[in-house]
Amino acid sequence: MASVNDDAELAQRIAAGDSNALGEAFALHNDRLRRGVLFRMDPRLRGRVDADDVLQEAYLQAADRVDHFAKRREESGEEGAMSLFVWLRLLAAQALVDAHRRHLGAKMRDAGREVALGGAPSPVATSVSLAGCLLGKLTSPSQAAMRAELETKLQDALAGMSDLDQEVIALRHFEHLTNSEVAEALAIESKAASIRYVRAVKRLKEVLDTTPGFAGLESLLK
């Protein structure tokens, strides 16, 4: 994971008009951005669009918005400005929303739903994507045999959690955002993001413990 200093230096260079800095920023954060795109991509879209295509579109959008990024940093000051990674992630989310609309249109279902994060639309984390990622950690032959049977149960149980609780779990556990990045993405205070995360994990553990077949599977959250 890139350090805060790496991000800050690249952000300064981008705002100053360094033509190489944007490409370096995408290269630095490629793995994290790609993970987020794949997590939120509707399964039906994967046969038509590659995650790298979405990131390429996000790069083009970023190149068009460098002046806007620089202006926001000047107005907010470095301390109050959106971090570079959160800005790039926001553009990647917008590019993914566009891909969903373009290829699925009115056929969008849960995995294509959108929520407003950081002031812009983003594909919402869903019980489908969360269940798939959680169960992806069941890797032994005996565990893999349970997957098909348990997935529907887990999706139904997760659907009982609020959208925000599901989103916090997704951001921290599957997109690997830090607490401060989650706070930025959700446009809430860092302390509130931390409290929300603790409550969401507790709620998810309760869901797992009260769902047949999942009692004691706290390892899914690690």
Q: H/E order of the elements?
A: HHHHHEEHHHHH
Query: Helical stretch count?
Result: 10
Radius of gyration from the CA trace?
A: 18 Å
How many β strands by DSSP? 2
Shape by Cα distribution: globular
| Sheet having the most strands | 2 strands, antiparallel
Helix content: 55-70%
Q: Runs with pLDDT <50, length 5+?
A: none
Distance between the termini: 18 Å
Average residue-wise pLDDT: 80
Strand content is: under 5%
Widest beta sheet: strand line-up? 1-2
Structural class given helices, strands, pairing? mainly alpha
Q: Could you explain the architecture of this structure?
A:
The chain is mostly helical. 67% of the residues lie in helices and 4% in strands. It contains ten helices and two strands; from the N terminus they run H-H-H-H-H-E-E-H-H-H-H-H. The protein has helices at residues 4-15, 21-40, 51-64, 66-80, 84-103, 127-135, 141-158, 163-174, 179-186, 190-209; strands at 114-117, 120-123. It has a two-stranded antiparallel sheet. A hairpin with a 2-residue loop joins strand 1 (114-117) and strand 2 (120-123). It is globular and about 55 Å long. The chain starts with a helix and ends in a 13-residue tail after the last helix.
Give me a quick take on this structure.
This protein has helices at residues 4-15, 21-40, 51-64, 66-80, 84-103, 127-135, 141-158, 163-174, 179-186, 190-209, and strands at 114-117, 120-123. It has 222 residues and is mainly alpha-helical.
